[in-house]
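In the laboratory, one determines a bound structure by crystallizing the protein with its ligand and collecting diffraction data. In a computational setting the workflow is compressed into a single prediction: the sequence and the ligand go in, and a structural description comes out. We illustrate the idea with zinc ion.
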Amino acid sequence: MRLATFIQDGRWRLGAIVGDEIIDLASAHDARLGGYHLPSDMRSLLEAGPDAWSEVERTLASGDLAPFARPLTGVKLTAPIPNPSKIVAVGQNYMDHVKEQGAEIPDHPIIFTKFPTSVIGPDDEIRWDPGLTSKVDWEVELAVVIGREARRVPADRAYEYVFGYTIANDVSARDLQFADGQWVRGKSLDTFCPLGPWIVTWDEIPDPHELPLRCLVNGEVVQDSCTDQMIFQIPHLIEFLSRAFTLLPGDVILTGTPPGVGHFRTPPRYLQDGDIVTVEIEEIGALTNSCHTQAQ
Ligand code: ZN
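The predicted complex, in structure-token form:
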């Protein structure tokens, strides 16, 4: 399944992507099946667990969904998880990206966080104050969405806790990131975590470590790699993280970025007002955002 969150009348609603249309799941469920109210947002759906997920599957199998379908072009998608309890990110997790920096291959995952207030959705603007940062960079990343509460999960059971995958742009203010001694401020500016455009459930991606991924700035390819370059793969990351803290349904893990970020180019290149950034991963889709600077 491809599950999205869209906005209607100022509220989040759950949608399923079918072709180039989006199905209003709650309306379809109420009309076709009834008896149970689907949660109105993705985090609540994930928290509700497998019984609720199978209601979504039953809805999609309930016959002609045309009465509940709208063209995707006519709806406003937000991040599929607009309100995760946390976003955990991994630095220097692509072999080719580590080599690009001339850095040592880390012997354990390098973990940081992006605050949930940084999340935006497809077509939203990445905004920053040019008086605060002038070195804003792109990072395409495969994002893992956690489906069940995970604590001390061994690697060989880790996929049982994955609900699906989406795309993230780990937008980074390099001047703040490297001036601070740790990365959280430079990674957590409002709007610096575009997520989407939807979640592809785990069953549709048999191997998340063979997905080509790319980033384009104004149509020019700046990152072009494959998730097979990941140093610490998803099962290892879930084991490592869940030994330290609980992962909750709807939590998002950003699994690192391949080479081609602006900061390590010669000369360095950063995002500018008006730039259009697209991050895309095969089998998931593409997420596009424009850049807007605003003095504050
Ligand atoms: Zn990153």
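Residues 87-293 form a domain with the Fumarylacetoacetate hydrolase; domain 2 fold (CATH 3.90.850.10). Keep in mind that any predicted model is a hypothesis to be tested, not a measurement.
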